[in-house]
Amino acid sequence: MRKVRDVLRLKFDSGLSDSKIAAAIGCARSTVQECLRRAKAAGIGWPPPEGLDEAGLQARLYRREVAVSTTPTPDFTRLQHELKRPGVTRLLLWQEYKAAHPDGWQYSVFCDQYRRWLGTQDAVLRTHHVPGEKCFVDYAGQTLSVVDRATGELRPAQIFVAVLGASSYTYAEATWTQQLPDWLGSHVRALESFGGAPLAIVPDNLKSAVTKAHRYDPELNPAYQDLAEHYGVAILPARVRKPRDKAKVEVAVQIVERWILARLRDRTFFSLAELNAAIGELLQQLNTRPFKKREGCRLQQFNDVERPALRALPDRPYTFAVWKKAKVHLDYHVEVERAYYSVPYKLIGKTVDVRVSAHTVEIFHRQQLVSAYERASVRGQFSITAEHRPERHSAVIELTHERLQQRALAIGPATAELLTQQLHRRRHPDESLRASLGILRLARDFSPPALEAAATRALELKTYSYRAVRALITLTRPSDEPTTTVADHENVRGETYFT
Description:
about 500 residues; Nucleotidyltransferase, domain 5; alpha+beta; six-stranded mixed beta sheet; single chain; elongated; Arc Repressor Mutant, subunit A
Protein backbone atom coordinates (compact mmCIF):
# COMPACT_ATOMS: atom_id res chain seq x y z
CA MET A 1 0.00 0.00 0.00
CA ARG A 2 2.96 2.35 0.46
CA LYS A 3 3.81 2.01 -3.25
CA VAL A 4 0.14 2.50 -4.20
CA ARG A 5 0.16 5.81 -2.33
CA ASP A 6 3.39 6.77 -4.16
CA VAL A 7 1.74 6.00 -7.51
CA LEU A 8 -1.25 8.20 -6.69
CA ARG A 9 0.91 11.03 -5.38
CA LEU A 10 3.31 11.02 -8.34
CA LYS A 11 0.44 10.83 -10.86
CA PHE A 12 -2.01 13.37 -9.48
CA ASP A 13 0.32 15.67 -7.59
CA SER A 14 3.48 15.64 -9.78
CA GLY A 15 1.89 14.74 -13.13
CA LEU A 16 4.58 12.22 -14.11
CA SER A 17 4.05 9.72 -16.88
CA ASP A 18 3.36 6.10 -16.19
CA SER A 19 6.86 5.11 -17.35
CA LYS A 20 8.59 7.60 -15.03
CA ILE A 21 6.43 6.54 -12.10
CA ALA A 22 7.32 2.88 -12.75
CA ALA A 23 11.03 3.74 -12.84
CA ALA A 24 10.75 5.83 -9.66
CA ILE A 25 9.10 3.18 -7.50
CA GLY A 26 10.79 0.15 -9.12
CA CYS A 27 7.93 -1.73 -10.71
CA ALA A 28 6.52 -2.48 -14.17
CA ARG A 29 4.61 0.16 -16.18
CA SER A 30 1.66 -2.25 -16.44
CA THR A 31 1.49 -2.41 -12.64
CA VAL A 32 1.25 1.39 -12.46
CA GLN A 33 -1.50 1.39 -15.07
CA GLU A 34 -3.45 -1.33 -13.23
CA CYS A 35 -3.17 0.64 -9.99
CA LEU A 36 -4.45 3.81 -11.62
CA ARG A 37 -7.31 1.91 -13.24
CA ARG A 38 -8.41 0.52 -9.90
CA ALA A 39 -8.13 3.96 -8.28
CA LYS A 40 -10.31 5.50 -10.97
CA ALA A 41 -12.90 2.74 -10.63
CA ALA A 42 -12.98 3.27 -6.86
CA GLY A 43 -13.13 7.07 -7.18
CA ILE A 44 -9.89 7.65 -5.29
CA GLY A 45 -7.46 10.44 -6.20
CA TRP A 46 -4.77 12.37 -4.38
CA PRO A 47 -4.90 13.05 -1.55
CA PRO A 48 -7.03 10.04 -0.58
CA PRO A 49 -10.16 10.66 1.48
CA GLU A 50 -9.52 11.67 5.07
CA GLY A 51 -9.52 8.76 7.51
CA LEU A 52 -8.80 6.14 4.86
CA ASP A 53 -6.00 3.97 6.29
CA GLU A 54 -3.98 1.38 4.40
CA ALA A 55 -6.38 -1.45 5.26
CA GLY A 56 -9.31 0.60 3.96
CA LEU A 57 -7.40 1.62 0.83
CA GLN A 58 -6.53 -2.00 0.08
CA ALA A 59 -10.15 -3.07 0.60
CA ARG A 60 -11.44 -0.44 -1.87
CA LEU A 61 -8.82 -0.98 -4.56
CA TYR A 62 -8.52 -4.77 -4.38
CA ARG A 63 -12.02 -5.81 -3.41
CA ARG A 64 -12.62 -9.46 -4.22
CA GLU A 65 -16.01 -10.69 -5.23
CA VAL A 66 -16.21 -14.26 -4.02
CA ALA A 67 -19.24 -16.28 -4.91
CA VAL A 68 -20.97 -17.91 -2.02
CA SER A 69 -20.24 -21.64 -2.13
CA THR A 70 -23.26 -23.86 -2.40
CA THR A 71 -21.25 -27.04 -1.75
CA PRO A 72 -22.51 -28.84 1.39
CA THR A 73 -19.87 -28.73 4.17
CA PRO A 74 -19.41 -31.85 6.34
CA ASP A 75 -19.69 -31.69 10.13
CA PHE A 76 -15.97 -31.87 10.88
CA THR A 77 -16.52 -32.22 14.64
CA ARG A 78 -18.59 -35.34 14.04
CA LEU A 79 -15.97 -36.65 11.59
CA GLN A 80 -13.25 -36.26 14.20
CA HIS A 81 -15.33 -38.20 16.74
CA GLU A 82 -16.18 -40.94 14.24
CA LEU A 83 -12.53 -41.44 13.26
CA LYS A 84 -11.77 -42.49 16.85
CA ARG A 85 -14.08 -45.48 16.51
CA PRO A 86 -12.51 -48.84 15.51
CA GLY A 87 -12.39 -49.50 11.76
CA VAL A 88 -13.67 -46.06 10.69
CA THR A 89 -11.60 -44.40 7.93
CA ARG A 90 -11.77 -41.13 6.03
CA LEU A 91 -12.70 -42.99 2.87
CA LEU A 92 -15.73 -44.55 4.58
CA LEU A 93 -16.85 -41.18 5.93
CA TRP A 94 -16.42 -39.57 2.49
CA GLN A 95 -18.51 -42.30 0.88
CA GLU A 96 -21.27 -41.65 3.43
CA TYR A 97 -20.95 -37.91 2.75
CA LYS A 98 -21.24 -38.41 -1.04
CA ALA A 99 -24.23 -40.67 -0.60
CA ALA A 100 -26.01 -37.90 1.28
CA HIS A 101 -24.70 -35.09 -0.98
CA PRO A 102 -23.98 -36.31 -4.54
CA ASP A 103 -22.86 -32.81 -5.58
CA GLY A 104 -20.42 -32.56 -2.66
CA TRP A 105 -16.63 -32.51 -2.60
CA GLN A 106 -14.51 -35.17 -4.17
CA TYR A 107 -12.32 -37.29 -1.89
CA SER A 108 -9.11 -35.23 -2.25
CA VAL A 109 -10.90 -31.95 -1.46
CA PHE A 110 -12.78 -33.64 1.39
CA CYS A 111 -9.49 -34.75 3.04
CA ASP A 112 -7.78 -31.41 2.37
CA GLN A 113 -10.60 -29.42 3.95
CA TYR A 114 -10.65 -31.74 6.97
CA ARG A 115 -6.89 -31.26 7.48
CA ARG A 116 -7.33 -27.48 7.26
CA TRP A 117 -10.09 -27.58 9.88
CA LEU A 118 -8.07 -29.90 12.12
CA GLY A 119 -5.14 -27.50 12.02
CA THR A 120 -7.29 -24.78 13.57
CA GLN A 121 -8.42 -27.00 16.47
CA ASP A 122 -5.09 -27.83 18.08
CA ALA A 123 -3.86 -24.46 19.26
CA VAL A 124 -0.83 -24.61 21.57
CA LEU A 125 -0.69 -22.66 24.82
CA ARG A 126 2.76 -21.26 25.53
CA THR A 127 3.47 -21.77 29.23
CA HIS A 128 5.43 -19.32 31.33
CA HIS A 129 7.54 -21.22 33.87
CA VAL A 130 8.13 -19.58 37.24
CA PRO A 131 11.71 -20.02 38.57
CA GLY A 132 11.93 -22.76 41.17
CA GLU A 133 8.35 -23.91 40.64
CA LYS A 134 8.52 -27.17 38.65
CA CYS A 135 10.95 -29.91 37.73
CA PHE A 136 9.91 -32.24 34.89
CA VAL A 137 11.16 -35.86 34.86
CA ASP A 138 10.98 -38.74 32.39
CA TYR A 139 12.97 -41.57 30.81
CA ALA A 140 14.41 -41.39 27.31
CA GLY A 141 13.07 -43.82 24.76
CA GLN A 142 16.60 -44.80 23.72
CA THR A 143 18.99 -46.87 25.83
CA LEU A 144 22.76 -47.37 25.92
CA SER A 145 24.41 -50.76 26.39
CA VAL A 146 26.99 -51.74 29.00
CA VAL A 147 29.25 -54.74 28.33
CA ASP A 148 29.78 -57.39 31.01
CA ARG A 149 33.57 -57.92 31.15
CA ALA A 150 33.22 -61.56 32.21
CA THR A 151 30.62 -62.78 29.72
CA GLY A 152 30.56 -60.10 27.03
CA GLU A 153 26.81 -59.78 27.47
CA LEU A 154 25.21 -56.45 26.56
CA ARG A 155 22.94 -55.02 29.22
CA PRO A 156 20.76 -52.01 28.33
CA ALA A 157 20.82 -48.99 30.63
CA GLN A 158 17.85 -46.64 31.01
CA ILE A 159 18.41 -42.88 30.70
CA PHE A 160 16.71 -40.69 33.32
CA VAL A 161 16.21 -37.01 32.43
CA ALA A 162 15.19 -34.13 34.72
CA VAL A 163 14.84 -30.50 33.64
CA LEU A 164 13.93 -27.31 35.52
CA GLY A 165 11.15 -25.26 33.96
CA ALA A 166 12.44 -21.68 33.95
CA SER A 167 16.11 -22.25 33.03
CA SER A 168 15.88 -25.56 31.11
CA TYR A 169 18.86 -26.69 33.20
CA THR A 170 19.12 -30.42 32.50
CA TYR A 171 20.24 -33.46 34.48
CA ALA A 172 20.64 -36.93 33.03
CA GLU A 173 22.02 -40.26 34.24
CA ALA A 174 21.94 -43.95 33.40
CA THR A 175 20.34 -46.60 35.63
CA TRP A 176 19.77 -50.31 35.13
CA THR A 177 15.99 -50.21 35.35
CA GLN A 178 12.98 -47.95 35.67
CA GLN A 179 11.94 -49.76 38.85
CA LEU A 180 11.25 -48.00 42.12
CA PRO A 181 14.78 -48.08 43.66
CA ASP A 182 16.38 -46.62 40.51
CA TRP A 183 13.52 -44.17 39.97
CA LEU A 184 13.75 -42.70 43.47
CA GLY A 185 17.55 -42.80 43.49
CA SER A 186 17.65 -40.75 40.29
CA HIS A 187 15.39 -38.14 41.90
CA VAL A 188 17.67 -37.87 44.92
CA ARG A 189 20.78 -37.41 42.76
CA ALA A 190 19.01 -34.92 40.48
CA LEU A 191 17.96 -32.72 43.42
CA GLU A 192 21.47 -32.90 44.85
CA SER A 193 22.81 -31.83 41.44
CA PHE A 194 20.42 -28.85 41.43
CA GLY A 195 21.39 -28.00 45.00
CA GLY A 196 17.77 -27.46 45.99
CA ALA A 197 14.19 -28.63 45.61
CA PRO A 198 11.43 -27.10 43.46
CA LEU A 199 7.84 -26.68 44.60
CA ALA A 200 6.59 -29.53 42.41
CA ILE A 201 7.79 -32.46 40.31
CA VAL A 202 5.91 -33.44 37.13
CA PRO A 203 6.39 -37.14 36.20
CA ASP A 204 4.76 -39.45 33.69
CA ASN A 205 2.34 -42.20 34.78
CA LEU A 206 4.82 -45.08 35.05
CA LYS A 207 4.11 -47.56 37.86
CA SER A 208 7.07 -46.39 39.93
CA ALA A 209 5.37 -43.00 40.21
CA VAL A 210 1.62 -43.57 39.94
CA THR A 211 -0.10 -46.68 41.24
CA LYS A 212 -3.45 -45.77 39.70
CA ALA A 213 -3.73 -43.05 37.06
CA HIS A 214 -6.68 -40.66 37.25
CA ARG A 215 -7.40 -37.37 35.55
CA TYR A 216 -8.34 -35.58 38.76
CA ASP A 217 -7.06 -37.65 41.68
CA PRO A 218 -4.17 -39.97 40.74
CA GLU A 219 -2.99 -42.48 43.36
CA LEU A 220 0.76 -42.10 43.93
CA ASN A 221 3.13 -44.92 44.76
CA PRO A 222 3.57 -44.78 48.58
CA ALA A 223 7.37 -44.72 48.33
CA TYR A 224 7.21 -41.85 45.81
CA GLN A 225 4.84 -39.97 48.13
CA ASP A 226 7.31 -40.63 50.94
CA LEU A 227 10.10 -39.02 48.91
CA ALA A 228 7.85 -36.02 48.15
CA GLU A 229 7.14 -35.52 51.85
CA HIS A 230 10.83 -35.82 52.71
CA TYR A 231 11.76 -33.00 50.32
CA GLY A 232 8.54 -31.03 50.78
CA VAL A 233 7.54 -31.12 47.11
CA ALA A 234 4.22 -31.78 45.39
CA ILE A 235 3.84 -34.52 42.78
CA LEU A 236 1.75 -33.45 39.76
CA PRO A 237 1.54 -36.38 37.33
CA ALA A 238 0.83 -35.51 33.71
CA ARG A 239 -2.52 -36.58 32.33
CA VAL A 240 -2.60 -39.89 30.51
CA ARG A 241 -1.66 -39.50 26.83
CA LYS A 242 -1.15 -35.74 27.26
CA PRO A 243 2.58 -35.25 26.57
CA ARG A 244 2.17 -31.49 26.40
CA ASP A 245 1.60 -31.48 30.16
CA LYS A 246 5.33 -32.19 30.39
CA ALA A 247 6.48 -30.66 27.13
CA LYS A 248 9.60 -29.26 28.80
CA VAL A 249 11.01 -32.71 29.54
CA GLU A 250 9.81 -34.10 26.20
CA VAL A 251 12.04 -31.54 24.50
CA ALA A 252 14.84 -32.19 27.00
CA VAL A 253 14.69 -35.93 26.27
CA GLN A 254 14.96 -35.21 22.55
CA ILE A 255 17.97 -32.95 23.14
CA VAL A 256 19.66 -35.54 25.38
CA GLU A 257 19.12 -38.23 22.75
CA ARG A 258 20.58 -36.07 19.98
CA TRP A 259 23.29 -34.23 21.91
CA ILE A 260 24.49 -37.00 24.27
CA LEU A 261 23.26 -40.47 23.35
CA ALA A 262 23.95 -40.08 19.63
CA ARG A 263 27.56 -39.06 20.38
CA LEU A 264 28.07 -42.09 22.62
CA ARG A 265 26.51 -44.61 20.24
CA ASP A 266 29.83 -46.11 19.07
CA ARG A 267 31.63 -46.08 22.43
CA THR A 268 31.96 -49.21 24.56
CA PHE A 269 31.28 -49.04 28.30
CA PHE A 270 32.05 -51.76 30.85
CA SER A 271 30.27 -50.31 33.88
CA LEU A 272 27.41 -48.02 34.74
CA ALA A 273 29.80 -45.62 36.47
CA GLU A 274 31.88 -45.35 33.30
CA LEU A 275 28.76 -44.59 31.26
CA ASN A 276 27.56 -41.95 33.72
CA ALA A 277 30.97 -40.28 33.67
CA ALA A 278 30.71 -39.92 29.89
CA ILE A 279 27.15 -38.61 30.16
CA GLY A 280 28.27 -36.10 32.78
CA GLU A 281 30.95 -34.65 30.52
CA LEU A 282 28.54 -34.10 27.61
CA LEU A 283 25.85 -32.86 29.99
CA GLN A 284 28.17 -30.12 31.17
CA GLN A 285 28.73 -29.07 27.54
CA LEU A 286 24.97 -29.11 26.92
CA ASN A 287 24.24 -26.84 29.89
CA THR A 288 26.95 -24.37 28.87
CA ARG A 289 26.03 -24.31 25.17
CA PRO A 290 24.60 -20.86 24.20
CA PHE A 291 20.90 -20.61 23.44
CA LYS A 292 20.01 -20.03 19.80
CA LYS A 293 17.11 -17.64 20.30
CA ARG A 294 17.98 -15.86 23.53
CA GLU A 295 20.97 -14.66 25.48
CA GLY A 296 23.03 -16.85 27.77
CA CYS A 297 22.95 -20.59 28.35
CA ARG A 298 21.20 -23.08 30.63
CA LEU A 299 23.86 -22.86 33.34
CA GLN A 300 23.78 -19.06 33.35
CA GLN A 301 19.99 -18.96 33.57
CA PHE A 302 20.12 -21.58 36.32
CA ASN A 303 22.60 -19.59 38.40
CA ASP A 304 20.83 -16.26 37.80
CA VAL A 305 17.14 -17.10 38.24
CA GLU A 306 16.54 -20.76 39.12
CA ARG A 307 18.99 -21.63 41.88
CA PRO A 308 17.99 -18.71 44.18
CA ALA A 309 14.34 -19.78 43.90
CA LEU A 310 14.94 -23.42 44.89
CA ARG A 311 14.33 -24.45 48.48
CA ALA A 312 17.09 -25.88 50.64
CA LEU A 313 17.44 -29.65 50.78
CA PRO A 314 17.00 -31.54 54.09
CA ASP A 315 20.06 -32.28 56.20
CA ARG A 316 20.03 -35.92 55.16
CA PRO A 317 19.08 -37.35 51.75
CA TYR A 318 16.04 -39.50 51.28
CA THR A 319 16.58 -43.18 52.09
CA PHE A 320 14.82 -45.56 49.79
CA ALA A 321 12.11 -47.59 51.47
CA VAL A 322 9.51 -50.06 50.25
CA TRP A 323 5.95 -49.92 51.53
CA LYS A 324 4.13 -53.17 52.15
CA LYS A 325 0.92 -54.31 53.79
CA ALA A 326 0.94 -57.03 56.45
CA LYS A 327 -1.59 -58.68 58.72
CA VAL A 328 -0.91 -58.92 62.45
CA HIS A 329 -0.68 -62.56 63.56
CA LEU A 330 -2.16 -64.05 66.74
CA ASP A 331 1.24 -63.68 68.40
CA TYR A 332 0.98 -59.88 67.70
CA HIS A 333 3.86 -60.01 65.21
CA VAL A 334 4.00 -59.14 61.51
CA GLU A 335 6.21 -60.99 59.06
CA VAL A 336 8.53 -58.89 56.90
CA GLU A 337 10.95 -60.73 54.61
CA ARG A 338 11.00 -63.81 56.86
CA ALA A 339 11.66 -61.84 60.03
CA TYR A 340 9.10 -60.97 62.71
CA TYR A 341 8.35 -57.67 64.43
CA SER A 342 5.88 -57.05 67.25
CA VAL A 343 3.08 -54.48 67.41
CA PRO A 344 0.59 -53.73 70.22
CA TYR A 345 -1.49 -56.87 70.85
CA LYS A 346 -4.75 -54.94 70.33
CA LEU A 347 -3.92 -54.86 66.58
CA ILE A 348 -4.22 -58.65 66.24
CA GLY A 349 -6.02 -59.39 62.97
CA LYS A 350 -5.60 -55.83 61.65
CA THR A 351 -3.80 -54.89 58.43
CA VAL A 352 -0.90 -52.49 58.90
CA ASP A 353 1.43 -50.58 56.57
CA VAL A 354 5.11 -51.46 56.80
CA ARG A 355 7.91 -49.19 55.60
CA VAL A 356 11.09 -51.20 54.96
CA SER A 357 14.36 -49.34 54.37
CA ALA A 358 17.92 -50.61 54.24
CA HIS A 359 18.34 -50.41 58.02
CA THR A 360 14.92 -49.90 59.62
CA VAL A 361 11.41 -51.35 59.68
CA GLU A 362 8.58 -48.98 60.62
CA ILE A 363 4.99 -50.16 61.14
CA PHE A 364 1.99 -47.85 60.78
CA HIS A 365 -1.69 -48.29 61.52
CA ARG A 366 -4.04 -45.66 60.15
CA GLN A 367 -1.04 -43.49 59.33
CA GLN A 368 0.17 -43.58 62.96
CA LEU A 369 3.57 -45.08 63.80
CA VAL A 370 3.02 -47.97 66.21
CA SER A 371 6.48 -49.57 66.28
CA ALA A 372 9.94 -49.19 64.76
CA TYR A 373 12.92 -51.58 64.77
CA GLU A 374 16.33 -52.07 63.28
CA ARG A 375 16.01 -54.37 60.31
CA ALA A 376 16.71 -58.01 61.19
CA SER A 377 20.01 -59.35 59.92
CA VAL A 378 19.02 -63.03 59.79
CA ARG A 379 15.92 -64.95 58.78
CA GLY A 380 13.56 -66.02 61.52
CA GLN A 381 14.72 -63.32 63.94
CA PHE A 382 12.09 -61.98 66.37
CA SER A 383 12.08 -58.33 67.44
CA ILE A 384 9.67 -57.49 70.25
CA THR A 385 8.83 -54.63 72.58
CA ALA A 386 7.74 -55.68 76.06
CA GLU A 387 4.91 -53.11 76.17
CA HIS A 388 3.26 -54.84 73.21
CA ARG A 389 2.41 -57.96 75.26
CA PRO A 390 -0.86 -58.46 77.16
CA GLU A 391 -0.46 -58.31 80.94
CA ARG A 392 -1.01 -62.05 81.38
CA HIS A 393 1.75 -62.76 78.84
CA SER A 394 4.09 -60.35 80.59
CA ALA A 395 3.44 -62.12 83.88
CA VAL A 396 4.48 -65.43 82.35
CA ILE A 397 7.51 -64.01 80.56
CA GLU A 398 8.71 -62.18 83.66
CA LEU A 399 8.39 -65.32 85.86
CA THR A 400 12.05 -66.14 86.52
CA HIS A 401 13.99 -67.56 89.49
CA GLU A 402 15.73 -64.23 89.93
CA ARG A 403 12.46 -62.31 90.29
CA LEU A 404 11.03 -64.89 92.71
CA GLN A 405 14.22 -64.75 94.77
CA GLN A 406 13.86 -60.98 95.07
CA ARG A 407 10.30 -61.40 96.35
CA ALA A 408 11.46 -64.04 98.83
CA LEU A 409 14.26 -61.82 100.20
CA ALA A 410 11.69 -59.12 100.84
CA ILE A 411 9.89 -61.60 103.14
CA GLY A 412 13.00 -62.94 104.88
CA PRO A 413 16.26 -64.89 104.48
CA ALA A 414 14.69 -68.22 105.44
CA THR A 415 12.10 -67.90 102.69
CA ALA A 416 14.84 -67.04 100.16
CA GLU A 417 16.90 -70.07 101.27
CA LEU A 418 13.82 -72.27 100.98
CA LEU A 419 13.36 -71.19 97.31
CA THR A 420 17.03 -71.88 96.65
CA GLN A 421 16.59 -75.41 97.98
CA GLN A 422 13.56 -75.83 95.70
CA LEU A 423 15.67 -74.93 92.65
CA HIS A 424 18.44 -77.36 93.51
CA ARG A 425 16.19 -80.31 94.34
CA ARG A 426 13.89 -80.30 91.28
CA ARG A 427 14.62 -82.13 88.03
CA HIS A 428 13.33 -79.33 85.78
CA PRO A 429 13.45 -75.56 86.45
CA ASP A 430 9.75 -75.21 85.67
CA GLU A 431 8.95 -77.58 88.56
CA SER A 432 10.77 -75.34 91.00
CA LEU A 433 9.04 -72.25 89.55
CA ARG A 434 5.60 -73.64 90.30
CA ALA A 435 6.58 -74.81 93.78
CA SER A 436 8.23 -71.46 94.57
CA LEU A 437 5.10 -69.60 93.40
CA GLY A 438 3.03 -71.76 95.74
CA ILE A 439 5.31 -71.02 98.71
CA LEU A 440 5.23 -67.24 98.03
CA ARG A 441 1.44 -67.43 97.73
CA LEU A 442 1.35 -68.48 101.41
CA ALA A 443 2.50 -64.98 102.38
CA ARG A 444 -0.76 -63.67 100.93
CA ASP A 445 -2.94 -66.48 102.27
CA PHE A 446 -1.58 -66.06 105.82
CA SER A 447 1.10 -63.40 106.43
CA PRO A 448 4.79 -62.77 105.54
CA PRO A 449 5.95 -63.30 109.20
CA ALA A 450 4.04 -66.57 109.36
CA LEU A 451 5.71 -67.72 106.13
CA GLU A 452 9.15 -66.70 107.36
CA ALA A 453 8.64 -68.61 110.63
CA ALA A 454 7.42 -71.71 108.81
CA ALA A 455 10.37 -71.51 106.39
CA THR A 456 12.79 -71.36 109.33
CA ARG A 457 11.21 -74.46 110.87
CA ALA A 458 11.18 -76.27 107.47
CA LEU A 459 14.92 -75.63 107.00
CA GLU A 460 15.57 -77.10 110.48
CA LEU A 461 13.50 -80.16 109.63
CA LYS A 462 14.98 -80.31 106.10
CA THR A 463 11.57 -80.51 104.54
CA TYR A 464 11.18 -78.12 101.59
CA SER A 465 7.92 -78.96 99.86
CA TYR A 466 4.95 -76.61 99.53
CA ARG A 467 2.73 -79.00 101.46
CA ALA A 468 5.19 -79.22 104.35
CA VAL A 469 5.55 -75.44 104.64
CA ARG A 470 1.77 -74.97 104.56
CA ALA A 471 1.37 -77.61 107.27
CA LEU A 472 3.96 -75.89 109.46
CA ILE A 473 2.15 -72.56 109.11
CA THR A 474 -1.11 -74.20 110.07
CA LEU A 475 0.40 -75.93 113.13
CA THR A 476 2.22 -72.85 114.38
CA ARG A 477 -0.65 -70.37 114.01
CA PRO A 478 -1.09 -67.92 116.94
CA SER A 479 -3.44 -69.04 119.75
CA ASP A 480 -5.85 -66.21 119.12
CA GLU A 481 -6.66 -67.68 115.74
CA PRO A 482 -9.80 -69.83 115.77
CA THR A 483 -9.17 -73.58 116.14
CA THR A 484 -11.34 -76.57 115.56
CA THR A 485 -12.01 -78.85 118.65
CA VAL A 486 -13.47 -82.35 118.66
CA ALA A 487 -16.25 -82.98 121.14
CA ASP A 488 -16.16 -86.10 123.43
CA HIS A 489 -18.38 -88.85 122.09
CA GLU A 490 -18.63 -92.61 122.49
CA ASN A 491 -17.94 -93.04 118.79
CA VAL A 492 -14.61 -91.16 119.06
CA ARG A 493 -11.86 -93.72 119.67
CA GLY A 494 -9.25 -91.46 121.24
CA GLU A 495 -5.48 -91.83 121.26
CA THR A 496 -5.50 -94.81 123.65
CA TYR A 497 -7.26 -96.89 120.97
CA PHE A 498 -4.05 -96.98 118.91
CA THR A 499 -1.67 -98.01 121.75
